[in-house]
Amino acid sequence: MAITVSLVALFGLVLYFLLRAGNLGYGSALVAAGFGFFLASTGAATPINQLAHSVIDALSTL
User: Which of 36, 43, 48, 44 lies closest to 11 in space, CA to CA?
Assistant: First the structure.
């Protein structure tokens, strides 16, 4: 039985622990970039883009 872990989940978990530990350096930047890259190729990309657009529109009306 093979167990596969999504790279999005793996990068997200590593990034969470790096942020929680306060260890923010070049490694964290690479993990964050990898997380964003793989997240953009999932089905979550459209809702994230819509959320960002909504927040930008809300801030521009203030």
Answer: 36
pLDDT digits (tens, 9 = 90+) for 30-61: 777 777 777 777 777 778 778 878 888 888 88
Q: Say if CB 38 and CB 7 are below 8 A apart.
A: yes
**Residue 10, burial from CB neighbour count under 10 angstroms (0-12, 13-18, 19+):** middle
Give the separation between CA 48 and CA 35, rounded to whole angstroms. 13
Q: Is the pTM of this model over 0.70?
A: no
Structure tokens at 17: 């622990």
